């Protein structure tokens, strides 16, 4: 290659005025969007409708009051709803102001409906106890035909 061809070739190159240009040997590292974070809090419904609970069982873990406490349940300071009496879990909606609210309650017998009409049916529990002196069994001395 002659001197003249080298000069012409150098004049055509865009890097001739800048000198040598260094190129990257590694790819550029981007930012990470979902980088670990904190572990999940395991929120949600723990006991579903018609499942049996004992006092202290957690029914719903939630942030805020998606579900409100009904009969025989209470709400903790972190909005956890838990049972205060043995029975079966029932979820129900009730009219509240202009909309509806979702409630959670505990009933004594499976399949019982909440909210309980205490004026017609009476109370199911007194002071958290169950009345065992009800006349649900057939009368003594009556024979079936």
Automatic annotation (TrEMBL):
Keywords: Ribonucleoprotein, Ribosomal protein
Gene Ontology CC annotation, any one: mitochondrial large ribosomal subunit
InterPro entries in the record: Ribosomal_bL27 (IPR001684), Ribosomal_bL27_CS (IPR018261)
Superkingdom of the organism of origin: Eukaryota
One Gene Ontology MF term: structural constituent of ribosome
One Pfam family per UniProt: Ribosomal_L27
Coiled-coil ranges per UniProt: none
Record SUPFAM superfamilies: Ribosomal L27 protein-like
A biological process term (GO) from this entry: translation
Similarity annotation: Belongs to the bacterial ribosomal protein bL27 family.
Name of the molecule in the record: Large ribosomal subunit protein bL27m
């Amino acid at each position: 290659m002659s001197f003249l061809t080298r000069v012409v070739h150098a004049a055509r190159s865009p890097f001739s005025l800048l000198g040598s240009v260094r190129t990257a040997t590694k790819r550029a590292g981007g930012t990470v969007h979902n980088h670990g974070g904190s572990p999940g809090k395991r929120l949600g419904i723990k006991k579903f409708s018609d499942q049996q609970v004992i006092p202290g069982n957690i029914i719903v873990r939630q942030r805020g009051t998606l579900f409100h406490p009904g009969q025989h349940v209470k709400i903790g300071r972190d909005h956890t709803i838990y049972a205060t009496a043995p029975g079966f879990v029932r979820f129900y909606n009730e009219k509240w102001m202009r909309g509806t609210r979702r409630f959670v309650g505990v009933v004594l017998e499976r399949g019982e409906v909440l909210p309980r009409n205490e004026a017609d049916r009476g109370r199911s529990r007194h002071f958290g106890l169950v009345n065992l002196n009800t006349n649900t069994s057939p009368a003594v001395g009556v024979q079936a035909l």
